[in-house]
Amino acid sequence: MALPLEIPPRARSVMSTSKASPMYNLRSSIASTGSTTSLTSLFAGTGASLPRDIVDDIKSVIHHAFVPHIAVHVSDDVDEVVREKGLPDFYQLIRPYGEKVQGRITARDSQGSSVPFEDFAVRFVRLSDVAQKPERKGNTSGNSFRNGEYGGTNAGIPEAINSEELPLADELLDLHLSHAEELIDTNLATETESHTGQAYYLLYLRKILSGFPVTPHETWAHPVACLIAISSRNTTPIDTLRQLYKSGSEVNVPGYINKEYLRYYVLVHDEDKDDIVKSAALFEQMKRHFGLHCHLIRLRSAMCIVSDEDSVPVAKSQWLPASEELAELHAHQEEDIENDTSSRFIHGSDEAAIKTMVREMVAQSVIPFMERNIASWNDQILSRRKGIGGRVLSFSRRFLGSTGTRTSSNSATASNFDAATNSYDPMTPEAQMRKLADWSFMLRDWKLAYDVYNTIRTDFNNDKAWLHVAGAQEMTLISLLLTGQPITPKIRADTIDVYLDAACYSYVTRFRAIYAALRCLLVTVELLRLAGGSSAELAAKWAIKALDLNIRPTVGRALISQRVGDCYAVRQGAGSGGWGGRRRKAAMWHVLAAETWIRLGKFAQARHCIDVAMPKYVNTEFVLIRRFVDQMRLDSGYVNLLDLKIDTGVGEAGGEIVEVENGDGEEVQEDDDGEVEKPTLDGKRRSILIPQTPNGDAPGVMTMDDADGPL
Amino acid sequence: MAGSSTSYYFVIIGTKDNPLYEAEFGSFKQGGDGIPKFREEQRHMNQFIAHSSLDCIEDQQWASKEMYLKTVDKFNNTWVSCFLTGGNIKFLLVHDTRSDEPIRQFFADVYDLYCKTLMNPFYEVNMAIRSQTFDQKIKAAAKKYL
């Protein structure tokens, strides 16, 4: 097969090594996103209503994105135990197990009824990561970040809201796709199986949602709890725990993070070297000192190899931020396959112990802690705000606030909002309400979350805390869509359109927070798409807006264009004619996506898009459309299966096909030699466009016969 | 069409999504010379845009009594205006500035011309219109109104 294939040299080198390594398992990371990936293309093409499990896939990505973050803060001796096992540190060891908490977790909602979750998840983060990032970026932002433009009100905004993950997510997807191309090219994977756009789009979405930056306007990345661990090797266990507690509190956490999170104490018992009786005694002592939020975990410190009896591979984290996954891939490129540390194993007993620990911590400590806080904030702050007194209070505050702005430039005196750091103090009612909303969202009490977001939005608005307003608008929409209440045209026009527009304006124009805007748009688009019908059209409209955020032709852009097509495809028409459907629009956007894919050298993706779009254009009499699509088919090395069948039926034409393919390959190869594909492509395309007919007639149907020329 | 004067792409689309007649012309207003200034990559996009706007037209055609549906669709900075004949033939104009009234007048003239073409015993519905006269008259109407 001489299918044209273009892989950037860097990607190629990474791939060539990583293909052999068991660690780079593309299939596994894709498989988890789409249980019926092969069906996806089918349904995207015909625009049938979405199958149930795809709905579940998308919802679960969104559910798993907004989960409680648990900071990890351990003593050196714990990391030492884990290092003896051959893993970098304790955090790396437990992280994958937070992504799927074993068994069923129940949480009570605001009505007091318990709701079971089968797939509850938490995200482990390093405490140091929470602390340092905003500080470091804050320094750079203070100097370079458009200081004067808004009269200094934005000076304190950490640039963290502009996550660095965005270009990295593009790069990562690029690698994944190049790898897929290679597999297809070498017939290791069939096209239909691995190149459905949905799987990659979900991967992209997951990567975007996996690295929430620590920001003042939302509390997703603020720790809900902190896991403090020591090991049985420690000679002064209780003192070390106190020390860790203290250093954990003193860590340079940004001021807007509430430090009153739950502390969970873990004693790591070294099964191979230490005495369990001693550890048990120590554990009892810990319980006496620190209360009930303690856990004893028994790990073996011996290295585990494949041949061991109960060895299990270390779980792979599905929610690695793009930066980490990239770093991992690049590290692999340099490693030899022999001393490959990637295929790490741990004892089955260790895995069970970690799962139990995570489950116990979440079910018995974290969730009750969150429930308690939600209930108390709900009682103390929300009800007061909503009651008569609260209205009067907020009114008088607004009144004072507005007079304040008139008399002095510093309006912050009247409100709790600190304009210098663009944040609220964690103890102010506003900050606590946002936290209440976020936490009830994490426990999937969408209705309560929606109510609270709705309430605080006006508060933030009065304080002119635009970033907070945008955040609340974003979450109001997302929680509204998740409540599953029917979306009437009125809601679409008055709520969704208005809030999305305002939130995007704030994010993009006021704060240049492209990441936040993109996240907001993509999540809403997905949820709207799931709602189907006219909402799907709205989804397409906002997905197009998302395209405007990113002008460069990157993988992300191509994926989003393809998604626009998918959104339109969801909208079905009525009756046999499909009246009111959006089939033509879907086809157009798939063609546009294919164009971007070709430009990026991802021909398998392009072929997939063309496949989806083709039925609409196969007999079109629009000459230029036909030319364009045919040219794209050439460029992407598309082989029409029907042509193939007819030709082999004739018998002797078989050889011809190979010739044609070779021809295609060479043609595109020439393109690849040029450093930038775009001009050559355009040049080529221009050369085959029909010229104006000599008598000055418009090009049109009369030149139909020429359409078959270039083929 | 950043920086250049307005250009129009006009197409008559039959009942089977087939184009019957296509023309591109520029604006004569504001000192325009009537020559279309579409960039090469815009020309096939015009057809894509026109074709995809049929989806929206099918939505809107039952909601309005008028034959002139005004602006029916938008793609980036390009609008699509539509005029629907009784026989479900669509006149589409892809344009980059909004001006409802001149376009309505233009469509009215085109409708006249189209009806005359229909009266030709050798012409059947959904046949491509190749008449030179028709082309010239369309261009004249464009010059008059656009």
UniProtKB/TrEMBL annotation, chain A:
InterPro entries: TRAPP_III_complex_Trs85 (IPR024420)
Biased composition (Basic and acidic residues): 676-685
Compositionally biased region (Acidic residues): 664-675
GO cellular component: TRAPPIII protein complex
Region of interest (Disordered), ranges: 664-711
Name under which the protein is recorded: ER-golgi trafficking TRAPP I complex 85 kDa subunit-domain-containing protein
Species of provenance: Arthrobotrys flagrans (Nematode-trapping fungus)
TrEMBL record, chain B:
InterPro entries found in the cross-reference section: Longin-like_dom_sf (IPR011012), Sedlin (IPR006722)
Origin: domain of life: Eukaryota
Biological process annotations from GO: endoplasmic reticulum to Golgi vesicle-mediated transport
Cellular component GO terms held in the UniProt record: cytoplasm
Protein name as it appears in the record: Trafficking protein particle complex subunit
Source organism of the structure: Arthrobotrys flagrans (Nematode-trapping fungus)
